[in-house]
Amino acid sequence: MNKKKSISASPPKGKSFKKYLLEGLMIFIAIVLGFISENIRSDLAEKKMTREFALSMISDLQSDTTNLKYTMSYFRQANKNIDSLNTLLLKNNFNNIPSGKLYFYGLWGGANEHYVSNDATFQQMRNSGLLRDVKNKSLLKKILNYDRLNREYQQEMALDNLFQIEVRKLRGQIFDYKYNRVSNTILQHSKRSNNQQEIDAFLQSDPPLLTYDPVVFNQYMEMVRSRKFEITVIDLERLLKNAEELISALKKEYE
After folding, report:
1. Structural domain boundaries in the chain
2. Coiled-coil intervals in this record (predicted)?
3. Which of 18, 95, 102, 130 is the most buried (most CB within 10 A)?
């Protein structure tokens, strides 16, 4: 009788430690790669957004430069005409000065032209935290410095506005409003037509003043002098220089 050989089923061999280690390593690598990929996507998205903001800031700055040039030209003209008035009063007796000159040059004592920076993009970047994504520290310094200069200029203009109000009060004691309007109308028309003859004719005219009191004129000129138009022009020139440099730096960095 043949004895059947008993065949015992051998238990399946378990996975080796190396295989477990390999699977764990692959899972770890997949997680790390996913994390890195997400960071790259996020970083690229932030860079894209920062670039879009930078291009928008360039547009804002170009608007600033246009307004700065106009405002600077305006205050240069104001300073020039007030200097002319000051020279007239220092060298001549009232009776020897055509009052048209006093009206025309004196009108500029109340010069008022507001420049406000178009900082919408800068404010958005600051409020959203995107300024921290400007990696170029020199560029970031230029952006922050330009903002600082604009804020300082606005503070100076707020103080100047107080003087300007007092100047207009004193001007109202010297110059008749009717002829101030005539003088201003001639000025505006001459700008459009480039016709100096209208201005020259008014300068030689003799509309009546409300007072010839030298004390009132002295108060007026002292108040006008306190407005420091020449300093305003210097501040505007500095702003314009910084705006143009910032435009160049932004273009170099992002375009």
Report:
1. 19-254
2. 226-253
3. 102
